[in-house]
């Protein structure tokens, strides 16, 4: 094995996703997840050579211990000698970062400064960076930002119609997220569909637990549905997406909610879960709807209607459509949601092909409409690959 591997770390508040990727082949030499960190029964689950294994951690063990155990594992599997860099997913890069960067003290300071905009995510990402710096002190560390791809948006797309000083003094604006995924699938679409980079109109729908749609013109993000935080835009698993901002004062003044209660309601108790009162998991909702569960059916109807409406709106910045991409856990697997959404977009020249729609599931990519132009296409995302490849490129430039 050659020295061509990158360790990819995606550190959440109580979890740590990791993968070691061979940048020559794209293959994952190791992948896994440390979960329930700093809680009662933390655990590392990993996959190596096709087999699944667990490592139990002690109650209260957090990111540093998880990374130390990961280092032991990597050494034990003799994967450490192949590593050339560590790539970190960082959720919010604010306006500082328009592309992936080599991590140094200035970069760490800038990520800290941006934490006010992503108080749940960035501090967790920083924990991962600090722990990895200690554990892999000989390796270059690279940060890859979820917001960076959207830094090409114009002011008319990214500013809210609120007093301008909130933007100039506090950075309040739309940033957009899932950038790594939108970038990856749109790059793939250009290749698969032979679309010219300087003349293409793509809408990409990343539909997972979080959901966002991006309008991509000539390879650049021109608008996206998420905003200052990942709460704006589409209906998601537990997030409401767009609501009337007047809801905030109604909940506070009429129902005595605190700001934290409102935040919790909109982020954790809404979306598919809030409407269905059953689950945030799309599979469960689809199964229940198929058995006649009225609120599950309603949750799917609202999810699809809002998604179709957002996709149609993005025809404005694009001036037309070459390809609509579906990706993420729901986008890659739910033929039901794709068929429903595409049926609402027939006026845009899209019509579903049922056989192709059923074939493009469970990791299979493919066009799912009867025509190829414009088309709807399923492309499995691969954010880890983008992080690994950016980290390798930056490390090799040093
Ligand atoms: P992600 O955040 O990308 O892992 O996506 C998670 C979402 O994908 C959850 O809502 C899952 O229910 C959904 N999902 C995964 N597989 C399927 C499937 N076969 N049908 C419908 N939804 C699915």
TrEMBL record:
Span of the signal peptide: none
Q: How does it assemble?
A: Homodimer.
Q: What organism is listed for this UniProt entry?
A: Pseudoalteromonas citrea
Record GO cellular component, one term:
cytosol
Site Transition state stabilizer — annotated at: 178, 239
Question: Which key words tag this protein in UniProt?
Answer: ATP-binding, Cytoplasm, Kinase, Magnesium, Metal-binding, Nucleotide-binding, Transferase
Q: What does this protein do?
A: Catalyzes the formation of acetyl phosphate from acetate and ATP. Can also catalyze the reverse reaction.
Pathway as given in its UniProt record: Metabolic intermediate biosynthesis; acetyl-CoA biosynthesis; acetyl-CoA from acetate: step 1/2
Family to which the UniProt record says this protein belongs: Belongs to the acetokinase family.
Q: Which HAMAP family match?
A: Acetate_kinase
Cross-referenced CDD domains? ASKHA_NBD_AcK_PK
Q: Which InterPro entries match?
A: Ac/propionate_kinase (IPR004372), Aliphatic_acid_kin_short-chain (IPR000890), Aliphatic_acid_kinase_CS (IPR023865), ATPase_NBD (IPR043129)
Instruction: Give the GO biological process terms.
Output: acetate metabolic process; acetyl-CoA biosynthetic process
For binding ATP, which residues are annotated in this chain's numbering?
17, 206-210, 281-283, 329-333
Q: Would you tell me the protein name for this molecule?
A: Acetate kinase
The record's gene field reads ackA
The answer, when asked if Mitochondrion is one of the entry's keywords, is no
Q: Which domain of life is it from?
A: Bacteria
Task: Provide the binding site for Mg(2+).
Answer: 10, 383
Instruction: Provide the reaction this enzyme catalyses.
Output: acetate + ATP = acetyl phosphate + ADP
> Which coenzyme or cofactor does it need?
Mg(2+); Mn(2+)
Cellular compartments annotated:
Cytoplasm
Q: Where is the active site?
A: 146 (proton donor/acceptor)
Give the EC number(s) under which this enzyme is classified: 2.7.2.1
Q: Per its UniProt record, what Pfam families does this chain match?
A: Acetate_kinase
């Amino acid at each position: 094995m050659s020295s061509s591997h990158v360790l990819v770390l995606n550190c959440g508040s109580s979890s740590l996703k990791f993968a070691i990727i061979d940048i020559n082949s794209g293959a994952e030499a190791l992948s896994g997840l440390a979960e329930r960190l700093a809680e009662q029964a933390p655990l590392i689950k990993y996959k190596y050579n096709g087999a699944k294994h667990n490592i139990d951690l002690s109650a209260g063990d957090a990111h540093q211990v998880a990374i130390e155990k990961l280092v032991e594992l990597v050494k034990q599997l003799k994967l450490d000698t192949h590593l050339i860099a560590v790539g970190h997913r960082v959720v919010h890069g604010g306006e500082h970062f328009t592309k992936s960067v080599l991590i140094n003290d200035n970069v760490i300071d800038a990520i800290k400064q941006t934490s006010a905009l992503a108080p749940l995510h960035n501090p967790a990402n920083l924990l991962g960076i600090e722990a990895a710096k200690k554990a892999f002190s000989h390796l270059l560390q690279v940060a890859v930002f979820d917001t960076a791809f959207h830094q090409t948006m114009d002011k008319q797309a990214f500013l809210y119609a609120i007093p301008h000083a909130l933007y100039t003094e506090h950075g309040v604006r739309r940033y957009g997220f899932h950038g790594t995924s939108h970038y990856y699938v749109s790059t793939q679409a250009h290749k698969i569909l032979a679309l010219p980079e300087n003349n293409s109109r793509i809408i990409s729908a990343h539909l997972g637990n979080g959901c966002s749609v991006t309008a991509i013109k000539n390879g650049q993000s021109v608008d996206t549905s998420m905003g200052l935080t990942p709460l704006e835009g589409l209906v998601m698993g537990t997030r409401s997406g767009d609501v009337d901002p007047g809801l905030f004062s109604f909940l506070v003044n009429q129902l005595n909610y605190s700001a934290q209660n409102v935040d919790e309601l909109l982020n954790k108790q809404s979306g598919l879960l809030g409407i269905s009162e059953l689950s945030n998991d799309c599979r469960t909702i689809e199964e229940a709807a198929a058995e006649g569960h009225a609120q599950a059916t309603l949750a799917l109807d609202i999810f699809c209607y809002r998604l179709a409406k957002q996709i149609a709106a993005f025809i404005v910045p694009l001036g037309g459509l070459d390809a609509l991409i579906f990706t993420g856990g729901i986008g890659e697997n739910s033929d039901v949601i794709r068929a429903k959404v595409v049926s609402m977009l027939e006026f845009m020249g899209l019509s579903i092909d049922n056989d192709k729609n059923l074939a493009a599931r469970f990791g299979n990519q493919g066009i799912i409409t009867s025509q190829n132009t414009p088309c709807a296409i399923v492309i499995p995302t691969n954010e880890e690959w983008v992080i690994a490849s950016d980290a390798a490129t930056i490390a090799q430039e040093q």
